[in-house]
Design goal:
Layout: H1 7-16, E1 18-21, E2 24-30, E3 34-41, E4 50-57, E5 64-70, E6 83-86, E7 91-97, E8 106-111, E9 115-118, E10 120-121, E11 124-125, E12 129-132, E13 153-154, E14 163-168, E15 171-177, E16 183-190, E17 194-198, E18 213-217, E19 220-226, E20 229-236, E21 239-243, E22 245-246, E23 249-250, E24 255-258, H2 264-269, E25 272-279, E26 288-295, E27 302-308, E28 310-311, E29 314-315, E30 321-326, E31 328-329, E32 333-335, E33 344-350, H3 354-363, E34 365-373, E35 390-398, E36 405-406, E37 424-428, E38 431-435, E39 437-439, E40 442-443, E41 449-452, E42 458-462, E43 471-475, E44 485-491
Antiparallel strand pairs: 1-2, 2-44, 3-4, 4-5, 5-6, 7-8, 8-9, 9-12, 10-11, 13-14, 14-15, 15-16, 17-18, 19-20, 20-21, 21-24, 22-23, 25-26, 26-27, 27-30, 28-29, 31-33, 32-33, 33-34, 34-35, 35-36, 37-38, 38-41, 39-40, 42-43, 43-44
């Protein structure tokens, strides 16, 4: 995709690029509405990451979903989109994928009754073309105009071929390219679903009531490598379903594994949340399972973590790591910090109780402790060290309207100095700081990078140019003074 960067656009870029300190250059990308989501991809294979912002034009219920693309260059990003177009009114989800192998990604639109794609050219976005003539029973157009992203079009089987996964009621339908490159129906995976329907409206007794509401919860989807094959996993609560991969296809019926973490009383009361993740965390080539429960009452809120090692044929019945704590302990993160192929575990915790909740709502602040546990590997009774190697605490802002935490959460997601090791990133003073990774599970005593910045509602660490150093994306969808902006901080350290 050729770039036609006019002098006016260059001037606009220079005006928008400001330096808060010598480490970061700031670009402001603006759309004509409220930003809902930001996706990054090298759409044109030029080595620079491009931004695709999904945004809402207008107000519900007449809001229109639109997509804006900002093309990355060596100088950064311009203030106005390079491409901007409206999504169809019945679009439910969007994705990005190079369908024809020309090095330029197409925008994939999952519409209510079909799956279509939009080609991007120098002249802009072309009209949608039909990829699959089938819709979904569980995807619906968002009435508020905020079109979500989901990675449903990708190399699912690890064979180098792009395939489409279409979620449906009780099924995950796979579409794969035929010899002519057309997407055709392949295997259909049987999927366990949970759904609800409610016919109780809000009308007073004796008044006519025709209100019906319903919802469907699709299991979380994961993939995992197994020798030369790639398997697919579905996770919901204490249950996992494994669909073995073979010859570029998945088994249509999943093998179920139940990894109990709830007590009988908790199952009966239904007052606990259970989140299940799968990943090879100990580096032995087998997928492991992480089960995290948290919940209860205001006076007895508690959390627990179980990690089950992957074994041939499934998962070990006995956990290889357990940890119980009072209060909130969720949002587990896993990073290979020391480069040994095993992933350390980051565990955020917060006290929950009547006194703590009152303090939170009065101060609009939440204190979060983050502990980092070293992975011991696939051998031995415990997968992780009993005590944390690194402990940090951070105070985050609390949005009391929706309960969301706002601020820079401790993380090892990014390499900020380009040395190949992930550095420690978290809130610091009136912004954020970065502490250098010194190896052997040690971080520097003082940050080598700092940035004064109001905490955003949404942010992400990304590698946006080809300097192998982490950059930042920030946006504030709930702030009417900034909801049309995507802030880019380019690392020039």
């Amino acid at each position: 995709m050729n770039r036609k960067i006019l002098t006016l656009a260059c001037l606009a870029l220079l005006l928008l690029a400001t330096t808060a300190n010598a480490a970061f250059v700031r670009n402001v990308c603006q759309v004509k509405g409220r930003v809902a989501e930001v996706v990054t991809a090298d759409l044109d294979s030029d080595g620079f990451t491009d931004l695709l912002a999904s945004y809402r034009f207008g107000a519900p219920p007449d809001a229109q979903a639109r997509l804006a693309i900002f093309l990355g260059t060596a100088q950064g990003y311009t203030g106005a989109p390079d491409i901007d177009f409206a999504a169809p009114a019945d679009a439910c989800v969007f994705d990005l994928a190079d369908l024809d192998g020309d090095g330029i990604d197409e925008v994939i639109l999952f519409r209510k009754w079909s799956v279509q794609f939009v080609k991007l050219t120098d002249e802009g976005a072309q009209s949608p073309q039909t990829l699959i003539k089938m819709g979904s029973g569980v995807l619906f157009p968002p009435f508020n105009g905020q079109l979500p992203y989901e990675n449903l079009v990708r190399d699912w089987s690890g064979d180098g071929k792009i395939a489409v996964a279409l979620p449906d009621y009780g099924a995950l339908r796979m579409f794969r390219p035929d010899d002519e490159g057309k997407m055709v129906a392949a295997e259909t995976l049987t999927v366990p679903l949970r759904s609800w329907i409610n016919t109780h409206g809000l009308q007073p007794p004796g008044m006519p009531d025709y209100m019906i509401s319903s919802s469907v919860r699709f299991p979380m989807i994961f993939t995992g490598e197994r020798q030369s094959e790639r398997d697919l996993y579905l996770a919901r609560g204490e249950s996992l379903w494994l669909y073995r991969g073979a010859a570029g296809r998945f088994a249509t019926k999943g093998q179920k594994f139940t990894l109990p973490i709830l007590t009988p009383a908790e199952r009966a009361q239904e007052n606990m949340n259970v989140l299940t993740l799968v990943d090879d965390i100990d580096g032995d080539g087998r997928v492991d399972a992480m089960i995290n429960k948290f919940g209860g009452g205001l006076t007895n809120f508690s959390s627990e973590v179980h990690i089950h090692r992957g074994i041939d044929g499934g998962f070990a019945a006995k956990p290889g790591f357990t940890l119980t704590a009072s209060g909130y302990m969720a949002g587990l993160r896993f990073w290979d910090i020391d480069g040994d192929g095993r992933k350390e575990m980051g565990m955020p915790t917060a006290e929950i109780g009547l006194v703590q909740l009152a303090r939170m709502f009065l101060s609009k602040k939440v204190k979060v402790d983050v502990k980092l546990f070293a992975c011991r590997g696939a051998i031995g009774p415990q997968m992780y060290a009993e005590k944390p190697t690194i402990s940090k605490n951070v105070t985050l802002d609390l949005n009391t309207d929706n309960g969301h935490l706002i601020g820079f959460v401790p993380s090892f997601e990014g390499d900020f100095d380009g040395d190949g090791k992930p550095d420690f990133f978290m809130a610091y003073e009136d912004g954020f700081g970065v502490w250098r990774n010194q190896g052997n599970m040690r971080i520097a005593a003082e940050p080598f990078l700092t940035q004064t910045l109001a905490p955003p509602q949404e942010y992400r660490l990304e590698y946006l140019d080809n300097d192998k150093k982490s950059d930042l994306l920030l946006w504030n969808p709930a702030d009417p003074t900034q909801d049309n902006q995507v802030i880019v901080l380019l690392n020039r350290n």
